[in-house]
Amino acid sequence: MTTTVKTKHRAMWASGDYPAVASELVAPLGPALVQAAGIGPGRTVLDVGAGTGNAAIAAAQAGATVTASDLTPELLAVGAKNSPVDLTWAEADAEDLPFDTAAFDTVISCIGVMFAPFHTAAASELLRVCRPGGTIGLANWTPEGFIGQMFATMKPYAAPPPPGAQPPPLWGDPAHLAGLFGDGVTDVSVERRRLRVDHFRTAAGFRDYFKSNYGPTIAVYRNIADDPSRVAALDADLLALAERHDIGAGAMEWEYLIYTARRTG
Q1: Domain spanning 3-9+16-197+254-263: CATH 3.40.50.150
Q2: For residue 2, what pLDDT is reported?
Q3: Measured in whole angstroms, how far is the alpha carbon of residue 115 from the centre of its chain?
Q4: Where is the Methyltransferase type domain (predicted)?
Q5: Which of 264, 1, 241 is nearest to 135 (CA)?
Q6: pLDDT, tens digit, for every residue of 158-177?
Q7: Angle between helices 119-129 and 174-181 (to 10 degrees)
Q8: Are 72 and 16 in contact (CB under 8 A)?
Q9: 163 HSE (CA, 13 A, CB side)
C-alpha cells in the first residue's frame, strides 16, 4: 500500500466512532472466530486488523499469547485501555506485517484484513507469518449479506479506489479465498453465519448511526458533501436497504463467513 493510500485508510478508520460499532454491534464475532479457530492455552496468536480487539481479547481470555495488530493506532489505543487481559498491541500494515516468517501458531482476522485494499498482498502476509501446520481463521462479511450489500449501495457515491484495489466483501466469498490462498492451505472449512443486530429501532436509526460512526460510510458522505442531491439519494438508498433487511422492530441479520484452514509446508 502506498503511503498516501495508507494514510487515507488509517484516517478513515480513525474517523467517527468505530469503537462504538465494535462494542455495540459486532462484539459477538470475535469470540465466535476464536472458538472456530480452536484457540486455547499455549497458542501464539496474531490478530490482523484487530481494531479495538474483539477477537484478540477473546483469544487472550482463552489462554493464548496474543499480538493484536492494526494500521490505525487510535483503535489500538482504545483496545489497550479497555482490555481486561494482557496482550501485545502493535501498529502494523496487513499488507506488510512487521513479524518474522512462521512466527505464530494461529493467524486470525475478524472483519479486519478484508478492508486491506490489495487482497493478494494481505493474504500472502497471513500465510507468511503463520507456521506450517498452523491455523488461519477469518470472519468476513459476505458480498450477499447486509454489510456486503451496504458497500455495493455506497459504491456509486464513493471516490474511485486505488488502482488494483479490490472490494472488501470479496473476502466473504469462498471462491475468492481459494484463489488468494491457493495451495498454501489445506483442511479448509467455510461456514456462513448470521449476526442478529437489534440495536436500531428503525431503518433511519441505522443509517444515521453509520453516517456518524462508521469510517467507510463517513468517507463516502464526505466525497459527495458538495452535492446535496447525491447526499439525499444516498440517504434514500441506505434507508431502503435497511428497510429491505428489517426482520421486525428494526432488527436485522448480517451474514458473515467463518473460514478456517491449516497452513501447508
Answers
A1: yes
A2: 66
A3: 6
A4: 46-136
A5: 264
A6: 999 999 999 999 999 999 99
A7: 60
A8: no
A9: 1
